[in-house]
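pasting for the record
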Amino acid sequence: MSLTASGEFQFVVQRYKYNEQCIICHTKVPPSRVTCFGKKSYNYHWVTPAKWDLIESGLRDLLDMVGEQPVRKLHAEFRTGSIQMRVDSTK
């Protein structure tokens, strides 16, 4: 029996550190169909390097907007491309 990822999205949780404060980023990522040598496949890539770039660029943009303010009470939800993100600071 083969094990394959299925569903409408993949949920990824990543922890970051910013100005000595921990930030948890919850990311809802839709799949991208794999194309190999011009042929479409029924396999999916979920979190590709390009999607990680979008996720971390969105997070950096959010932190740039916050600036030098403390991020202790940071709670934000936003969308970058087709990726939905929620960012929360932790204690």
